[in-house]
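Quick review question:
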């Protein structure tokens, strides 16, 4: 049973896509449009040798901007359409999306986790502190050695929580409650619900029941047919009056 689902903030994804679109428009301006950028040097409407060098540099910068902007725009649009969660808390464990794009998320049962906490990591570029989710794993075997959006510190998995739609404090509280409940009541997880049978299976089952009812004899009729007939009795029936014959004296 899913307790909490954490997605990336749609506002952040929209801003990333907007930046990618602006980078691609800037590349078009540098390479061909020259609405804002400086055009190559010309003389008498003919490009000079200096202008050719400028054009080659413009093409190189334009290709770089198109690649970067296209990547950001594609990532934002794909994430907004699919809306795959970055973390899911369940009764039996947590599901982490720390693998490369296209791979299945990783499942960690609560029995394999020692503790869950949060922290703030300083940005190496001098920006604001970034929220991270800290997961102490008992055995990291089976998990990606180089996770995406996370890093290993021994047996501690540090997941970047910047841009999550749910506050990191709320995530930690839900995780601690679910982990404590799973440790205290290990057999309390609800079994997965089986999907209902298809209509064809239901129809076949109904036909089998009907055929069984037709071939099964009625127990009352069987008892009546097997009962022995009554034997005639030698004693006269008291309800029938005997015929009295008149006798005469000779």
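Suggested answer, residue by residue:
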């Amino acid at each position: 049973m899913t307790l909490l689902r954490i997605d990336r903030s749609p506002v952040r994804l929209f801003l990333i896509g907007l930046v990618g679109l602006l980078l691609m428009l800037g590349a078009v301006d540098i390479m061909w449009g020259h609405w804002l950028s400086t055009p190559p040097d010309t003389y008498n409407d003919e490009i000079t040798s200096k202008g050719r060098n400028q054009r080659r540099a413009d093409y190189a910068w334009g290709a770089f901007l198109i690649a970067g902007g296209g990547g950001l725009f594609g990532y934002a649009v794909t994430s907004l359409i699919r809306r795959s969660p970055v973390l899911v808390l369940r009764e039996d464990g947590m599901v982490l999306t720390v693998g490369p794009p296209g791979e299945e998320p990783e499942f960690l049962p609560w029995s394999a986790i020692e503790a869950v906490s949060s922290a703030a990591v300083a940005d190496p570029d001098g920006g604001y502190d970034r929220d991270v989710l800290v997961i102490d794993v008992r055995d990291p075997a089976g998990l990606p050695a180089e996770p995406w959006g996370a890093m290993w510190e021994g047996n501690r998995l540090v997941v970047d929580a910047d841009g999550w739609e749910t506050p990191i404090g709320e995530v930690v509280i839900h995780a601690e409650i679910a982990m404590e409940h799973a440790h205290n009541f290990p057999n309390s997880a609800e079994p997965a619900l089986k999907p209902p049978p298809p209509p064809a299976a239901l129809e076949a089952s109904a036909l089998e029941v009907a055929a069984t009812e037709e071939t099964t004899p009625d127990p009352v009729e069987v008892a009546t047919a097997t009962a022995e007939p009554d034997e005639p009795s030698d004693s006269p029936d008291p309800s029938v009056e005997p015929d009295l014959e008149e006798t005469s004296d000779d």
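Why it works: The helical segments are 10-33, 49-82, 168-184, 199-215, 219-226. The two ends are 113 Å apart (CA to CA).
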